[in-house]
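Example 3.2
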Amino acid sequence: RLEEDLKKAMREQDVLRRSVIRTIRSEVHNEEIALQKPLDDDGIIGVLAKQVKQRRESIFEFRKGQREDLVKREEDDLAVLQEYLPPQLTAEELMFLVQEVIGEVGAQGPGDKGKVMGKLMPQVKGKAEGSAVNEVVSKLLEAL
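Structure, written as tokens:
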């Protein structure tokens, strides 16, 4: 899909989309070199999730520095990146998944956070941000 979208962006002279897709392809290529094997869909989603996280961190820092011009550029990049990620989980869906996993692993309290996170993160990869998952897991384990 990235190849087709890149060609389309070049034909339509969509500079933003072309730039973001080239960045994604470059990051995927770098990851393939590092792993010395081609990435599957999960690997590509991981690269995309990392790029989204970097954009969000940049937006936060640029806002702190009152650089609204850079915030706008990063937000535009972020919007394009999110088109390639699976649909994000809602708060209710995430809460349900966390409760399900807590039941599966038999978690008794905050000490079992590692077990819950270990089983949960592969299920939500690319669908929810790690910090949001961590927050929900912590909150639910505290309530046990």
